[in-house]
Amino acid sequence: MNTRKILVGGTSIALLALSLSACGGAAESSVSKGCQPESTFKTISAGFLTVAAPEFPPFASNKDGKLTGVDADIIKEFAAKNCLDIKVEPTSYAGTIPAVQSGRADVAIGCYYRTAARAEIVSLSDPVYTDEMGIVSESGVKDIKDLESMKVGTVDGYLWVPDMKKVMGANLTIYPSAVEMQADLKAGRVQAGIDGFGSAVQMYKADAKYKVVGATADPRVVASKEPAQIGFPMGKDNADMTKAMNTSIKSMKSSGKIADVVKSYGLPQSAVETGEPRLVK
């Protein structure tokens, strides 16, 4: 999924040594002698956790045979806690959920929104972090009311788009992707852009001219108050694995591990404050 696309098939801890996987991707060894798993559950391949991973930094990346990103680091920690090696099933974003549905992968990574539609076809973990509404500008504007007098761009499919259309009217330009929006921002055709915080941090990290800040909560824009929760999609028929994942997520939140991972990739610390589980309708 494109993290912007909430209904498309889409809106961590590199301690592991590399080996080759049967599916041709990278596998990283997490098992030590005498390892005692945190939970008991079945996987597609005994002793392995098969992970469907699109190329979508900063959440998932498998370049040069090294699995990295927010979701990747968290899922590697989950595998290590359960004495599993990782096999990577490389996919396109649109192909990741089908890989889990069809039984080619145990779990998917890549900033997947917890949506009601998605919950009908896969099992979703408890929320791991949130995908906050990020504003990109030279001045560092963070209040939606301050955007109203500006020409602003955003990307189609995000949760805030319907509300922002009402707020901004003709001053809002909607782009098919963040690439087109970035081009217009740099050309001065829009003065600010709205994107998922993590995606924006990745896209503008090499350009000090632009600041990425989280949008201040505005009652007119629901997504600014309740950002989408991110979870891990898993097979519907593996309730034990979903339970194990939730156990691990709870443990990693309590220990501060998820907060450390989120911080290491430039996401705001507030992203780990997910609140109670909810689904995007």
Order of H and E elements: EEEHEHEEHEEEHEHEHEHEHEEHH
The 3D shape can be described as elongated
Helix/strand/pairing class, anyone? alpha/beta
| Major beta-sheet overview | 5 strands, mixed
Strand content: 15-25%
Number of helices: 10
Q: How far from one another are the termini?
A: 17 Å
State the share of residues found in helices, binned by percent: 25-40%
Rounded mean pLDDT score: 89
* Strand order, sheet with most strands: 1-2-4-3-5
Strand count: 15
Write structural notes for this entry.
The protein has 281 residues and is an alpha/beta fold. It has ten helices and 15 strands. Strands 1-2-4-3-5 form a five-stranded mixed β-sheet. α1 links the parallel β3 (48-53) and β4.
Concise synopsis of the structure shown:
This protein has 281 residues and is an alpha/beta fold. It contains ten helices and 15 strands.
Chart the SSEs and their pairings.
Blueprint: E1 17-20, E2 26-29, E3 48-53, H1 70-81, E4 85-90, H2 93-101, E5 107-108, E6 112-113, H3 116-119, E7 123-124, E8 129-131, E9 133-137, H4 144-147, E10 152-155, H5 161-168, E11 172-175, H6 178-187, E12 192-196, H7 197-204, E13 211-214, H8 222-225, E14 228-231, E15 233-234, H9 239-255, H10 257-264
Parallel strand pairs: 3-4, 3-5, 10-11, 10-12
Antiparallel strand pairs: 1-2, 2-4, 6-14, 7-15, 8-14, 9-12, 9-13
